[in-house]
User: What shape does this take?
Amino acid sequence: MSDIPDGIEATAHGLRLALAKELEHGGSLRTPEWRDALLAVPRHVFLPSFYAALDGPDGITRYTAVGRDTDPGEWLRLTYRNTTWVTQLDHGATKPGGEPVTGTPTSSSTLPGVVVRMLEDLDVPDGANVLEVGTGTGYSTALLCARLGDRYVTSVEHDAGLSAADGERLASIGHRPRLVVGDGAEGDPINGPYDRIIATYSPGRVPAAWLAQAAPGAVIVVSLVGSLGAYGYVKLHVGQGEAQGRFIDSDVSFMPSRETERPEIGPLMRAAVRSRDDAAGLAPAVHPDTLDDPAFLWIAQLALPGTTRLRLAADGVTGRWFLGPDGSWAVLESRSDGTARAYQGGPRALWAELTAAASAWLADGRPGLDRYGLTVAPDTNTVWLDNPGNVAGVLGT
Ligand SMILES: C[S@@+](CC[C@H](N)C(=O)[O-])C[C@H]1O[C@@H](n2cnc3c(N)ncnc32)[C@H](O)[C@@H]1O
Assistant: This one.
């Protein structure tokens, strides 16, 4: 190991063995090939500093900096924890020091359990040419290099500064894969076609370029996210001109694509709260638990594109708010005594639309995510229930 003192490397190896055991026990690490890669790659090299998350008193997460300079032993131990460590907030504009600060994570090293699970799901044979989108810290890129060899690995990162740092860290442990700066949705035609494509950020749909750059028989693993914040982790098999596969679950989640346009929630929420007092309450036909079900939310966001959601609890009342991009809003207010009322306002009857989506989902037998599938054609991403002929909706951008 290049710049790592022997003492650290010996301790780190022990920590990697313990991590491998934990991931095998949890079922995410399944094959000797990925075990060897996990043991070979020093995660601490990719996490010279990171931000630890704490729950703030107001429910808003705060971050503090952790680095090898503050407490080297603790830092090293934490880098091998099966945890996601945030490494960038607000595109680098917020830099926590000793005092806890708020911010939106824009890059991280994903928890090894998820990284390894996805790599296992990718079913990578020796000699497969792999495209990764979302280089992040470079840790998952290093795992791919250790498993396959550098020339089979291409990784795309949106943030040029991160990509440059990744290149240095990878080189410090002897890896030189092709690193590209750009929008992962464009892939990288230069090194294609790819036998395997893995995304470690969450787009709203599978981009056409991935299909175009995938070799026949390729596998794509990606966790898609919609406007309601519900995730669909899917494994796709590429055939002639299209890719198809079933969703697996909603347990794999990443930060959204940096290219995703998000409505500003503050003004929408303030306008909704102002008109809430004038709205007449309705007896809701939908149970609050339905509005929290990841599979329902996954399918509801197909019916309500662009609608965002947030949950506010105060004075014994929990409000599940839905905010349409056009100023339409709906809220289900539930009280600790079990009673609930729904309210809606704005140009569209959003509560009525949510109720219709819930009725259809309940009539289908409350399907879990694993009953849904996806067909990706050059222009469309079509979601279906049980079989490709039973279309449930189409994914937007
Ligand atoms: C969760 S991190 C990746 C974790 C990484 N694979 C690792 O092991 O450290 C997600 C990364 O995706 C990048 N990203 C987000 N949107 C992107 C896009 N449209 N194209 C390329 N990279 C993107 C972010 O900048 C971030 O660094």
Remarks:
- The two ends are 43 Å apart (CA to CA).
- The domain at 6-53+109-249 is CATH 3.40.50.150 (Rossmann fold).
- The CA atoms of residues 157 and 163 lie 6 Å apart.
